[in-house]
Design a protein that fits this description.
Blueprint: H1 2-14, E1 22-24, E2 31-33, H2 34-44, H3 58-71, H4 74-90
Antiparallel strand pairs: 1-2
The chain binds zinc ion.
Zinc ion (ZN) is lined by residues 25, 27-28, 30, 40-41, 44-45.
Length: 92
């Protein structure tokens, strides 16, 4: 029903107070605040690079993750590392 869609839309635009929720970017696998993910995708994953090559491939992704990592606060960097370590341990 359209009313349900409208209610859902209102909920998301309000944004509540879940500022610190961390989500994974499905393009590069980086971890970001949910509120930042949209801008991250816009900035980091423009559809093509200047020479027309698709923005994919591990070396490019790692470079991007590292450059984004450098933009994090000390606490953000620590949280990210903790999460990466946790992910790796779970993946065993
Ligand atoms: Zn990304």
């Amino acid at each position: 029903m359209s009313t349900a869609v409208l209610e859902f839309g209102n909920e998301t635009t309000k944004g509540k107070s879940k500022m610190s929720e961390i989500v994974k970017c499905e393009v590069c696998g980086g971890l970001f605040n949910q509120s930042y993910l949209v801008s991250h995708k816009r900035l980091a994953h423009r559809e093509k690079t200047a020479n027309g090559a698709p923005v994919t491939g591990e070396p490019g992704a790692i470079d991007k993750i590292l450059s984004l990592y450098e933009q994090l606060s000390n606490q953000g960097q620590k949280d990210l590392l903790d999460r990466l370590i946790t992910m790796r341990e779970k993946g065993r």
